[in-house]
Specification:
- With 153 residues, this protein is mainly β.
- It has helices at residues 81-86, 93-97, 147-150; strands at residues 3-5, 10-13, 29-36, 39-45, 56-62, 69-70, 88-92, 108-109, 111-116, 131-132.
- It has a 3-stranded antiparallel β-sheet with strand order 3-4-7.
- Strand 1 and strand 2 (10-13) form a beta hairpin.
- It starts with a strand and ends with a helix.
């Protein structure tokens, strides 16, 4: 509380206010992508929150053109409390093979992340390390009909 003072003395105290000294959060670090069982998982390390709780992340994934980035708000919604708490999200390959990403099998997945608190958003991180999209092949079909492959020597 604050009181004014002059030659006569002190005035009444002001009402109490709370001041939160906070800043935008630091840029998330160690962004990585890895691929397993038809999903790409994007993960990152949260850095200093600027003195205010992280309320969301903005997660951008590189499109097939190699320079445009977009969000997947269905599988990787950075406003989800689960994504915020786990600092990761998993996206099915089907989403990455579709618009706006249009990635192909054998393509690396790159992502970048910004942290958001009540003050604002950090800059985006550098792009993550690029897990490669791959599909597990199905079982061979009709090998018994190929005499070259089934002959005994």
């Amino acid at each position: 509380m604050i009181a004014a003072r002059n030659l006569v003395g002190f005035g009444a105290n002001s009402t109490e206010i709370i001041i939160r000294a906070a800043a935008i959060p630091l840029i998330p670090s160690s962004v990585s992508t890895y691929v397993k069982d038809g999903y790409t998982t994007i993960s990152w390390t949260a850095e200093y929150n600027g003195g205010s709780e992280i309320i969301a992340y903005s997660i951008l994934i590189m499109q097939s053109d190699g320079y445009s980035f977009s969000e997947d708000l269905v599988s990787c919604d950075g406003t989800s409390t689960t994504v915020v708490a786990q600092t990761s999200c998993s996206i099915p390959f089907s989403s990455l093979f579709s618009s706006p990403f249009n990635l192909l099998v054998g393509t690396s997945v790159y992502a970048k992340v910004a942290a958001i608190n009540l003050v604002g958003a950090s800059d985006y991180s550098e792009s993550g390390n690029g897990g490669i999209l791959y599909l597990t092949p199905g079982p061979p079909l009709s090998l018994s009909e190929n005499k070259v492959l089934t002959s005994q020597t």
